[in-house]
């Protein structure tokens, strides 16, 4: 089940909110735990058992980690290792077994499917165990609140990756208010419109142009594919994060932000501080810093960064293009740390253009699982072995200019700044906000009625 579907909004969410708010305060975590399991099991109920085993492993071993972390560090580390390996083993098997089997020469398991959201909830469970070992979070003594943390449906399949330290107090002491609920509705509708109206439209254009390129590839057509896919992945993923944050607020939770206008970044380093912030934070806190970060010398720091980016690429998918994608960004981060970063800081306009081009081609690596297609796209972008444009591609470019302009503006803080300025100058704007949200919601409903399915890109990771 995805958020951008009629059955989620008018059936699941409606029933969930009704059950949640008619329940006494002490039962609300239990209600969330049950309805979140129902949400997860909607498409593949067999994997509910897998999730519950993962939760139980971290929950049980958490008591041993807490018991020994002050008195017997070695034993506490052993229990931590067992807990982490127990959870990682599920992720490694379901996500990577067939990849290694193909490359090593073992037999594949054709019936093996990836449990939805396992990459996200495994990281969340691991963060609890590690932070508990470090003494940074309290022990989760009650199973239901801890299970609610892992299964919480707003962020279960798409993030943001919520660490236990961010919500442990909210699990027991959050306050639901009308203003927070209204803010959540507005944020959800904003994310829904980004995903449906902009993200899905950009995806449709990218797929159309990509299929057309099989007959007559052109420089302009390939650039349009790259630009449209760049918009698609941003509006799809950031829109879903907005919806998750909005749903959390409806239930009294505050989740951390996951995107901060990444396409206005002035460097690749700046971009990865703004894109999928919770994933970058997770790898920095639990991989990069424990390896020594950049405190161990320049060469060792680059190797630590290489480890992080190899794992980041592999986390996104069990295929070589994702590994290449991770190495690709690692190279540019190293170049910026070595010398380019200082130059870009003095030339912000050049930095933004450079970042957009590098990131755009990075998404082409992400887009193509066929390595030959990546190489072909690189050649087409610079005009090797192809024509500049055709009449049909030129027509598509002219037709798409208004849409691309809207997408470009929507990627920047400009709309929010204009809204805030108007809200300060005109008193009626605060009253207009719910009306505009309702109109936008009705437009999204029309999109959902017209399109039978609106998949989420990160649903498969």
Keywords summarizing the entry:
461 residues; mainly alpha; single chain; 2 domains
Descriptive notes:
The protein has 461 residues and is mainly α. The protein is globular and about 70 Å long. The chain has two domains: 169 residues, no CATH class; 271 residues, no CATH class. The two termini are 15 Å apart.
Write the SSE topology:
Elements: H1 6-22, H2 28-40, H3 47-68, H4 73-104, H5 118-134, H6 143-151, H7 153-156, H8 164-173, H9 178-213, H10 219-250, H11 268-274, H12 277-291, H13 298-316, H14 320-346, H15 348-367, H16 371-381, H17 391-410, H18 414-425, H19 428-450
The largest pleated sheet is described as: none
Beta strands, count: 0
Globally, the shape reads: globular
Instruction: Output the number of helix runs.
Output: 19
Instruction: List segments where confidence is low: pLDDT < 50 over at least 5 consecutive residues.
Output: none
Radius of gyration: 23 Å
Q: Tell me the number of structural domains.
A: 2
Q: What is the CA–CA distance across the termini?
A: 15 Å
Helix/strand/pairing class, anyone? mainly alpha
Short overview:
The protein is mainly α and 461 residues long. It has helices at residues 6-22, 28-40, 47-68, 73-104, 118-134, 143-151, 153-156, 164-173, 178-213, 219-250, 268-274, 277-291, 298-316, 320-346, 348-367, 371-381, 391-410, 414-425, 428-450.
